[in-house]
Task: structure prediction
Amino acid sequence: MRIAYISQPWNTVIPPVNSGSIAIWNYQVSKRMAQSHDILVYSKRSRGQRKRGRYLGVNYRRFRIAPDQWLNRILKRLTRSSDQSPYFSASWHYIWYITRIAIDLRSSLFRPDVVHIHNFSQFVPVVKKMLPGTKVVLHMHSEWLSQLDRTQIADHLKYADLIAGCSQHVIDKVREAFPHYQERCWSVYNGADENVFCKNPHVLNDESDEFKIIFVGRISPEKGVHVLMEAFEQVAERFPQVKLEIIGPDAVTPYEYLVALSEVPLIKDLERFYHRGMRYLDYLKSILPLALAQQVEFVGSIPHNEISSYYQRADLLVNPSFSETFGVSLLEAMACEVPVVATPVGGMREVLLENETGVFVEQGNSASLARAIIHLLQDKHLRLKMGAKGRERVIEKFTWGWVADQLTSHYNNILAI
Result:
């Protein structure tokens, strides 16, 4: 089977890939698929990168996006948009990038059986029209299909042979919005490398109150880090030696990508963080009491191949998100036998087993979050039990090998039609 994966146009792909959730997905899946299939990955070409490369059996091709950046700036000013028809859903958004890729595929000896596209539904008709005999997969890691203009999206979906979602949560919303296409819709979960994310036997579990809590993700309002900061004050009163590490880039989700599209009141309320005249990260630091300044560390971005050590030294992972289509940090923590405290939103309800691999708390409720954290920190036996169950669950259902097997099955099914 010949398979082409198309990265999001802003993703820099330098194997081994260690940043960008979808870029990491492409890297982890493609190198496993390359053991049995011919794989080609497309991405943007950054300064100093070669147009072509090969790594672990995977071929890489890259195109510059400067023409698109120039075109996008002009058309964004000239085009009238709304919450349901924002500029990023327009057919012209990164049209140069996807057209160059489609032309390259049509003119090269690598004529794909399957083209796998992430998030950009407007790319689907471009590829299908230029490669009519190729099966096209649209893989959604967001809720855009059910949030954007449905007439526009329906015109894109009619060219997709398979509509994949990173969780059943995403797929259920697509099926509800587009019942005519529900037979094409399937969930394809994200994964974790069980050999990298695992318990470190050299990390000692002592009986002191020197606990470590971690958050892993982008520093953005919908991730609920401000709620965690409020809860941490209450936790520190009970455990004065507790530490909190906030790991991830200062990368606020653009307002129009999430808050403007959502109908959920708690997410709509996050609009206040976009009009403060202060960066979200600066706001978080401003609400941190001086007495706790030495106990909270904003670690910043960590390469993906190094982040497992942070999980391995943690007692708890906390993810208090208001919106999460999957929740990769939960998987990685569970693989490292670290129990999880999270909110029951989106795909996280499918990852975490309540009271088995962690606990759910009400979103936006710092008191509830603090109580759950304190409860788990007080009970070492429960933490160990949840950690072991979490590892078991990842091995059973969420490894990258499992993801590759599921994809192979889906590809074979659409090729047989």
